Sequence to fold (659 residues):
Amino acid sequence: MRIAPLAGLAILTAQTAAAELSDNHELTVALDWSLTDASSALGAWTDGRFGKLRYDSNGSTAETTRLALEYKGQIAPALFAHAVLDYVDDAIVKAGLTEAYLEWRPLPSGSNRHRYRFGAFYPAFSLENSGLAWESPYSRSFSAVNAWLGEEIRPVGAEWQLGRPIGPEGSPHELGASVGFFYGNDPAGTLLFWRGWSVHDRQTRLNERLPLAPLTLSGPAGPFTVERKLDPIAEIDDRPGFYAGGEWSYARKARLSLAFYDNRADPNAFRDGQWAWGTRFWHLGAQVLLPGDVGLVVQRMRGDTDWLIFVTSQGTTTPMTALATDEFDASFVLLSKVFGGRHRLSLRRDDFDLWRPGQLEVDHGDAATVAYGYTINPKLELRLEWLEIDSTRDIWPMFYGQTTRRQKESLAQIGFRLVLFDSTE
Amino acid sequence: MRRAVLHHGAAVLAGLLAIVAASQGAIAGGIEVLVLDRDGQPVPEVAVYARASGSSGSAAAEAGAPSVSGPELVATMNQHELAFDPHILVVETGTLIDFPNEDQVRHHVYSFSPVKRFNFSVDSGSIHEALRFDEAGVVTLGCNIHDDMLAYIVVVDTPHFTMTNGDGIAELPELAPGRYELEIWTPRVASKHLPDAVVVDVQADRNVGHEFRFDANLYRAHRHSETSLVWSDY
Fold:
């Protein structure tokens, strides 16, 4: 098994680190290993193909590994450093940071709780990715909405968050607000358009280049193919983007959030092989504990992206170059329940759309996911998962022939998640 | 769940005094309280306390009350599995409360309640030097590192206090006969919806009962963790 030396190394590293750890440093290391049977006629997007799945096992079974390392250090009484390191065995560069930021948590002097983050981090949009290292506690794969956030949305900037109880004292009603200003994320939308929506658990690491399906163009000497790479976190036009949101919550039984994100990118801007895409969206999230202790999580995202079509990867335009605006809309409903304290069953239904109004149905479809987790002990969880994506894309026939406009892709997975080290236990 | 040390101490002391009192023929009475919500369901974890009428100070000043001067009043607010334990702690004014941290991480405990403002760090596995709570009122505790941690210290200027059990019942035994002001407190309603204090006459050798009923819906009780819904504060 490939994981044996890796796990051994991780345990050794963790044990060495443990001796050094004090209250100033918290470290958690978790290993996610699984056997995956994935089938897609389009290949895996992580291989630079058009498929929506992270894997394409070509009818056989693939072994996959993720190692997540989350660090939190206390630099001063109210100042913390966070870093999340991610290792995956199916990336070109196997290890990298997904988040790295400083957090200032001034001591409240009244009901208002102010929090500030500086660095590279996820905005608090996802209600699904509440686990270690932005994993989902419900399933290994993320919904289409959050899979895309994990791919292309990673602000590098500053964020202010406010939380405060509302109503009379003792009231469990809380209001929250957040505002972030950031650089980077200028190509956000590129992968979404070219590949369409996706359902997976792969997170882009800072400064990672993702493969994009090659583009076949016609030239004077006949058709030629352009290999492409995407750096979703790049800054291209030096214009900061922003997001702002509000949240209401009730006693950790219910919450509702609304946010707006705009990378304010100029689609005419180009730098280092990357075009900027002007991407904006509204995001709505709701989480409720239903009767019978059934957890319900809902997110919906709707927005659009402005980009130049028929441009070259050298940064030049062509006579056909024009500004296009593609709209997108995706949502999911997740139900989850824990049985007997150890068995978690989660069901998720995704719906997604991406279109150029009046012209092109870029991507339209849905996905169903069933996940089961069995907590063998607090450190070890057995995981089973099945998902199927059913989608229709106008773009596929251009590359794969007329029969492939509609695709069904599916994945079955069995694996485990093991906490190798946790300094807080 | 751990309770305030004081609570047990007071009960034991009261019990001993009762035996002494019984043998001497001087007979104490008691108050039995039932707390119900708007729908008539029992409400657990409600602070119940009775102040002898006319007394405004603590035990020593209270006419007719057994003297508890001598041993220091002490209580404990634990930090355990990223939660304060207990969630609600009732103490008498003058009590020293210590704050042991049983977790493997540091906590930064704070209060901005007017009754007592403070903040301090407690390293894992250590105890913060006890703080004395001299002023009556409610102190809300938080942790600046773990936003989810929440607890209340209810400081009362009487030695006669307790909490309702799972059946919504609380007993204040071994009270000297006389007139008492009986009050309750919970964080689960706004203070304007807390029932008014009532005057209860305690007679020798018998229990007098009183029922409190809320006229407003109660907020849901604070629970530290959920089994089916996972929250993240980012």
